[in-house]
TrEMBL record:
Coiled coil: none annotated. GO terms for biological process: recognition of pollen. InterPro entries: Bulb-type_lectin_dom, Bulb-type_lectin_dom_sf, Kinase-like_dom_sf, Pan_app, Prot_kinase_dom, S_locus_glycoprot_dom, Ser-Thr/Tyr_kinase_cat_dom, Ser/Thr_kinase_AS. One of its GO terms (cellular component) is plasma membrane. The chain crosses the membrane at residues 443-466. GO terms for molecular function: ATP binding; carbohydrate binding; protein serine/threonine kinase activity. Its EC number is 2.7.11.1. It is found in: Cell membrane. Belongs to the protein kinase superfamily. Ser/Thr protein kinase family. Residues 27-153 form the Bulb-type lectin domain. This is Receptor-like serine/threonine-protein kinase. Residues 1-26 form the signal peptide. It comes from the Eukaryota.
Length: 851
């Protein structure tokens, strides 16, 4: 009896186990001779990690059946792809299989083909296999070769998924568009399409019926879409788009989107009503939340204010206005736009006393650049760009955008939007008389200022002359008078700088504690185990850095200002002011600060992989950072720097970019750190001078090391050095005693010999992408040129790094390190924080002169 019981129990357990096996291993593939049937026993194909499923469904209240792909293991199984969108099956008799010709086919109850992956190839096709992948892609491949015959990602419906590659072919205008559903419950093709408009600089466009434009993203500048001002902020999920290069054999390039966190589910969908929604799955709320939608505001609607109109949500008299110098064509009706008030020089009739001055340009700042349908664009420089515009009477505006180059509008300006910040500058062509009006008043002001300044200068000059005379009388020596003039200008500059106006202004705006969490001293002491030595990670610009673990388990890095000496206070302030305002995935993130008593500390996210020098200069680790990773790190640093120079609300020169200031997170993403030396620049300021040159030997540009002049181009120089170090795995200074004098000198030597390849770190040379490596070295040679003007800006650098098609200018020989090395060496003294300081006179605090 007991025996019998035991047997039944074990049998039922066994069958239960069998049942479990059967139901838990859901298929993710379909082969020839297999069928995926609709009906009561319908079991969809499930991707290996259950992220997506493929099967039959009915949308909403509809009873029609469609073959589609939807999300697997979340509550809201949104549909992302439909096969037979225009051809529904009216009952549950549908079957998916692979035909004898090797195509995926969807048959109805009458064995009639409803949909097919229609591929005419019929050789060697009896081993084809269809599989649903965790990306949401349904692929038909040849089982033995893995060759992809067909994939749903190449035939999207209304949804763009991460990892999807949208093909753009500038030559054919081909742009795999997404087409909306007809209604919420009808997947058949609706009124709206979304795609990449490849004419000119590519942009995303949402089209309505008859291909009328509804919205556009603004031109792609190789890093962001210029018409989405917040795109470079880390906080939203838009960062991660990329245009592939080089073009493949058909001339196509691909737009891809790689989210910063692959575990976040994201989808971009064109709704039936013409809204494009960007959605993210929120696991807490168990629903899709919208993080952006387009068009978002009234001004995002395409051409809202007509040609030559500007749409500004904050406009004083309604959202529409005309560009200055333009007037409304028909008062009260913006759809007709604006027209120029005064004819351009080339339009004026000379025989009736036209003539007049050359046309001039009015600059609109922070705008979404007008649409650009029949573009003329090139990599000419800004001055040349302007001349080209003046040459053609139909040119109405031009601009020069890093990453795109010169753009000239020989057409009406359409869809300009005014942003509060971000955006681009646009130079509008106007008759000189339109600009003159404004200039007159300016001239008066300038004259007054000049006269006043003259009086003051004259006073100072005579004072100095008097003192000089007295001195001369005393010493009896003859000195060149021009020396006096130079001295005077210097002393004048230093006094204005010492008034501290620059610093105070920055401070006044800055440390907004509501933006920046404050940690208590006790929490930090606890986290770092009372700053114990084992927790010391290293030394930053102004003091030791400790690792810590907060109560909730979050790992942090704490930078502690080495208190009493007072040294480093400026750098500390500088860092807190700057970095609190910066947000980018390639900049280290400040979590908060702590001020209590004597203690001043900054709290950062902890970077488990330390800094880049830890890897690339360490023989045992060099091989770990292969070429692919090094290139990704290079790109990351370039993006971070571009953000500092251009895309953030402030314009920032880092001034101390070096390998040890590039930190690496757990995924080896590079993050620029240490803003103690960084400087904010005013909008129009291009160059500044500093009395104290602070930086690190080997990374300093000639003009900075020699004259204390710094600009974005001095960072570009440092970036060039960094590039060479990352590629070669050698420190710039490590070759100082060699015949080439430095890594730069050695790189130049190899570059001129056509042997640049030999520069690549031998540990990774065999496996590196040679084309990419050579391009990087070429870009580095452009960055380390002696003349700041000849160095590219970071936007151009990024463009050159990422696009195989850009033709790179020939680099000039960098002579600075090899020839003048000794002359600056003698001026340097090593301070405690491994930074070399050179003082050009007795004043040692760092000040920014001129504005
Ligand atoms: C459809 O084809 C299958 C196999 O080819 C066959 O068994 C079935 O009877 C056919 N159905 C109809 C309605 O023709
Ligand atoms: C759009 O196309 C339809 C049919 O193709 C046509 O009837 C209609 O007039 C067009 N509308 C516009 C605004 O061009
Ligand atoms: C950009 O971001 C800022 C702050 O995050 C916000 O105030 C502003 O409205 C955003 N601008 C646009 C156009 O979304
Ligand atoms: C699509 O266009 C048709 C024809 O103009 C219109 O009747 C329909 O309402 C539109 N559908 C949507 C969702 O806008
Ligand atoms: C389109 O539909 C979505 C969701 O139903 C809604 O949020 C959005 O405002 C609608 N857009 C328009 C232009 O009607
Ligand atoms: C999900 O939504 C909740 C409530 O709005 C929010 O607090 C949380 O941050 C969201 N989660 C993510 C991952 O965005
Ligand atoms: C505005 O101008 C457009 C185009 O000329 C015209 O179709 C429309 O009827 C006008 N609207 C009004 C309100 O006058
Ligand atoms: C210029 O003005 C003269 C005199 O009014 C006229 O005869 C001539 O046609 C005009 N030329 C053009 C190009 O408009
Ligand atoms: C001026 O622009 C027009 C319009 O794009 C173009 O057709 C013409 O060739 C240009 N002329 C010159 C001299 O470039």
């Amino acid at each position: 009896m007991t025996n019998f019981r035991k047997t039944t129990l074990s049998i039922s357990l066994f069958s239960f186990f069998l049942f479990l096996c059967k139901s838990s291993i859901a298929a993710d593939t379909i082969k020839i001779g297999e069928f995926l049937r609709d009906g009561s026993n319908h079991k969809p194909l499930v991707s290996p990690r259950k992220t997506f499923e493929l099967g039959f469904f009915s949308p909403g209240v509809s009873t029609l059946r469609y073959l589609g792909i939807w999300y697997g293991n979340i509550e809201d199984k949104a549909v992302v792809w439909v096969a037979n969108r225009a051809n529904p099956i009216s009952d549950k008799s549908g079957v998916l299989t692979i035909s004898n010709a090797g195509n995926l086919v969807l048959l109805n109850g009458q064995n009639i083909t409803i949909w097919s992956s229609s591929n005419i190839e019929s050789t060697n096709n009896n081993n084809r296999i269809g599989a649903i992948h965790d990306t949401g892609n349904f692929k038909l491949t040849e089982a033995n070769t893995d060759r992809v015959i067909w994939e749903s990602f190449n035939h999207p419906t209304d949804t763009f998924l991460p990892q999807m590659r949208v093909r753009v072919n500038p030559q054919t205008g081909d742009n795999h568009a997404f087409v909306s559903w007809k209604s919420e419950t009808d997947p058949s093709p609706g009124n709206y399409t979304l795609g990449i408009d490849p004419s000119g600089a590519p942009e995303i466009v949402l089209w309505g019926r008859n291909k009328t434009r509804k919205w556009r993203s603004g031109q792609w500048n190789s890093a962001v879409f210029t018409g989405i001002p917040n795109m470079s902020l880390l906080t939203n999920y838009l960062y991660g788009f990329k245009l592939s290069s080089p073009p493949d054999e058909t001339g196509s390039v691909y737009f891809t989107y790689v989210p910063s966190d692959p575990n976040v589910l994201l989808r971009f969908k064109v709704l039936y009503n013409g809204t494009e929604e960007e959605l993210r799955w929120n696991e807490t709320l168990k629903r899709w939340t919208k993080f952006q939608s387009e068009p978002d505001s009234e001004c995002d609607k395409y051409n809202r204010c007509g040609k030559f109109g500007i749409c500004d949500m904050k406009g004083a008299n309604g959202i529409c206005s005309c560009v200055k110098g333009y007037e409304q064509v028909s008062v009260g009706n913006w759809s007709r736009g604006c027209r120029r008030r005064t004819l351009l020089k080339c339009e004026r009739n000379v025989s009736v006393g036209g003539g007049g001055g050359e046309d001039e340009f009015l600059t609109l700042k922070s705008v979404k650049l007008p649409d650009f349908e029949t573009p003329e664009h090139s990599l000419a420089d800004p001055e040349d760009c302007k001349r080209r515009c003046l040459r053609n009477c139909s040119c109405s505006a031009f601009t020069f955008v890093g990453g795109i180059g010169c753009m000239i509008w020989n057409q009406d300006l359409v869809d300009i939007q005014q942003f509060e910040a971000g955006g681009s500058s646009l130079h509008i062509r106007l008759a000189d008389s339109e600009i003159r009006e404004k200039k007159k008043s300016k001239i008066v002001v300038i004259v007054v200022v000049v006269v006043l300044a003259g009086v003051v200068l004259l006073g100072i000059f005579s004072l100095l002359l008097w003192r000089f005379k007295r001195k001369k009388d005393v010493s009896g020596k003859d000195t060149d008078t021009s020396v006096v003039v130079v001295d005077m200008s210097k002393s004048k500059d230093t006094t204005t700088a010492f008034s501290g106006s620059v610093d105070i202004m920055i401070e006044g705006k800055a440390v907004n504690t509501s933006e920046l969490p404050v940690f208590s001293l006790s929490a930090i002491v606890k986290a770092t185990n009372d700053f114990c030595r084992e927790n010391e990670l290293g030394r930053g610009g102004f003091g030791p850095v400790y690792k810590g673990v907060l109560e909730d388990g979050q790992e942090i890095a704490v930078k502690r200002l080495s208190g009493k000496s007072g040294q480093g206070v400026d750098e500390f302030k500088n860092e807190i002011i700057l970095i609190a305002k910066l947000q980018h995935r390639n900049l280290v993130r400040l979590l908060g600060c702590c001020f209590e008593g004597e203690e001043k500390m900054l709290v950062y996210e902890y970077m488990p992989n330390k800094s880049l020098d830890f890897f690339i200069f360490d023989e045992t680790k060099q091989a770990l950072v292969d070429w692919k990773l090094r290139f990704a790190i290079i790109e990351g640093i370039a993006r971070g720097l571009l953000y500092l120079h251009r895309d953030s609300r402030l314009r920032i020169i880092h001034r101390d970019l070096k390998v040890s200031n590039v930190l690496l997170d757990a995924e080896m993403n590079p993050k620029i750190s240490d803003f103690g030396m960084a400087r904010i620049f005013g909008g129009n300021q291009n160059e500044a001078n500093t009395v104290r040159v602070v930086g690190t030997y080997g990374y300093m540009s000639p003009e900075y090391a020699m004259e204390g002049l710094f600009s974005v181009k001095s960072d570009v120089y440092s970036f060039g050095v960094l590039l060479l170090e990352i590629i070669s795995g050698k420190r710039n200074t490590s070759l100082r005693s060699s015949e080439h004098g430095s890594l730069i000198g050695y790189a130049w030597y190899l570059y001129t010999q056509g042997r640049s390849e030999e520069l690549v770190d031998p540990k990774i040379r065999a496996t590196c992408n040679k084309r990419e490596a050579l391009r990087c070295i070429h870009v580095a040679m452009l960055c380390v040129q002696d003349s700041a003007a000849e160095r590219p800006n970071m936007a151009a650098v990024l463009l050159m790094l990422e696009s195989d098609t850009a033709t790179l200018p020939v680099a000039r020989q960098p002579t600075f390190t090899s020839n003048r090395r000794n002359s600056i060496d003698v001026n340097f003294a090593l301070d405690s924080s491994q930074q070399y300081i050179v003082s050009s006179n007795e004043i040692t605090s760092t000040v920014v002169l001129g504005r």
